Amino acid sequence: MSTQLLLEATGVVKRYGAVTALRNASLSIRPGEVHALMGANGAGKSTLVKILTGAVRPDAGEILIRGEARAVHSPAEARRAGLVSVYQEPALVPDLDIESNLRLTQTPVASFLSWVRELGVPDLDLRETARRIPLAILRVLDLARALAIEPDVLLLDEMTAALPANLADRVIDVVRRQSQTGRSIIFISHRLLEISALCHRATVLRDGETVGVVDMAPGAEEKIVELMLGTRIAKAQDWRDRRQQVPAREQDHPRLQVRNLQVGTKLRDVSFDLHPGEVLGVVALEGQGQDELFGILAGSRRPSGGSIEVDGKGVQFRHPADAIEAGVAYVPGDRAEALLMQRSVRENIALPFSARLPAWGPIKMRREKARVDDAIGRLQIDTRAQREVQRLSGGNQQKVTIARWIAAGSRIMLCFDPTRGIDIRTKHQIYPLLRELAAQGVSVLLYTSELEEVRLVCDRAIVIFGGQVVDTLPLERADEASLMRAAHGLPRDESAA
Amino acid sequence: MTQFAHRQGWVLGLFVLFALLLAGTWAIQPDYGAGGVGSLVRAALPYAFAVAAQTIVVIGGGIDLSIASMMALTSVTAARLMGGASEEFAILVVPLVLLLGLLLGAINGILIVITRVPDIIVTLAMLFVWQGVALLVLESPGGGAAEWLRALVIGTLSIPGVPEAITQWIPKALILVLVCLGIVWIPLHRSRLGLSIYAIGSSSLAAFRSGVGVARTKITSYAVAGLFAGMGGLVLTLSTGIGAPIPGPYLLASVAAVVLGGVTLGGGKGGLIGPIVAVFILRLVRSDLTLLAVDPNVATIIEGTIMVIVVMLGAFIAMRSRAS
Fold it and tell me: Where are the domains of chain B?
């Protein structure tokens, strides 16, 4: 292994008009290392990635590839230079089948297929249209496609964010073995545990500047968090105390009672109670029926059997409007599914609660404004770009999706992986927000793909496996190992309990 | 105020463009006066209703290719009913024709929602259907229009106490178009239904999840478009005095004005004022080219070029203002 750097970027500057996205970013990648690129949302990670892969040109700075200055002007050029990236959004053309997609990018099929198997997807049909493949699998296919090209530097942007735990483990495994063969990986993730287990070094960006390079060693996580947060050390633990004040409300009547819910073969038999002021975690691997469960509760799907009661009254939702009317709100992980990206913050917040008004009745402007301002204030949404929601950062967008339901007066929040792809700082604003909602009596059903969130936010957790609730864990037993075992359908480990 | 200017930047720009064109017209033709403005507004009148109809559908994420046919059908229906009938009978004809327009639009919307065939195909098919029906109603230009109704469109406003030097600049047709569009658009824009139309155009999944009845909203947007087309058909009959069953050149003109007016063809963005100003701009460009004695064939080339340049410049300015 030579000591020469594979990739070195120094003093990279990028301005968009008056906004400086990168003021002084640097990054150096050694051969055979897994290098984490860290930073809160808006720190400049994605801009740096775009510059490295040739999608955006920097205003200043030098990029050396194997010691040679090289200007990369397009993703195709970056690829010829040995740098291949897997972006956060699936890159397969949705209306083409997998085979055509591979031909489009001139990917060797045999090598692609062996990587797909390696990554834990055994039965892939090459004639399947990309549109019909679930998101998690698509991401794995993107990775397999990148690996098949055999790049020198592989850039993975939030690769594990949308993956269930079992697939994420396979991906991490493959990445580790890649680095042992001398390839380098730039790894972008919000999951610190993953980073500390996998990466050799981490470069931390803050406000467009590289503020430190950390060698991964015990205790490095704290150092990274410190660097990312800078002087604004988040009082992340504050809300933990607050949760202690919330009394257990088991004795109350359940706000939401679900009994023997079924949809085809996907959801076989799910029953649980959700109490007022409770945050109930839902833990499941990809595709265990959680999508169907949340779809039914949100009114966008109909069950084939079972019953739902809200406050003791049986309900049948035929449309999301029915669910909203009953006080049930759905917050999807993908903000684009919830928000009108081209419209203003105000309109986005106003839309659901105006759904209760008669169609032609005028919206009462003053009252609407008061409720919207209240919701914005409570969530500390940065509204400098309030003309279009699409200009807000991911975290602020997610806050808008929650704020709109607060304004609508919802009493049951169905949150489906609400922190997916959000930076730590914003996550630590969303957790206390969920707790605060619970303290005010709102019931929260929280599906999460990050097991540690159960400990952080939930009062109890149910585990769904194969369309059935296989376990209900009180907080004291909801450690990550127990959740993981249950999610894989393993019986409860009595000796540990 | 600056925020207002920022938000309405495109519309303000269109007004400036219109003013520049008017100034240019005077430079070409120094005696272009109240009469010229009056005939410009009258010529633009049916276009204004066509573009209003197209705007509401496009904001809702759709497109309606049958607008000109609906105008032809409502126009001949009005002409046939009023032809030879008493002046008073026309009082009944107006609501009837407007209702017909609403119904035609609703049928378009219902077909799109029920069949799930893309709207561009459904309305293309309905373009032929409504055109055929129009020919069944009246096979050649004919019929009539009540004189008192025609008086609403033709001539200038006379307000007692205001000298004619001022009133001659205000064609009745301009008042008519502002009142008709305002009566429908302003309450719609401020209601939940208006917000819902923007919502389905912006993202129908997000709108659905937010509790908006997507199918119902879509049908309503097409029905309101039909209502505007009905107004347009009625105005056609009133300004010519007869009904013509062959659709006029309003379809492509309406799409052009929608685009120039700052409404995104993907839906969810824009308003009604921009496209209406755009209609006047496009009409004025045409009359300027006529005044300059430009070959009509060359004139269409110039019109097309202007459209691309204006939209391109607009996108460029929007990008710059976003960056700063």
Answer: 44-272
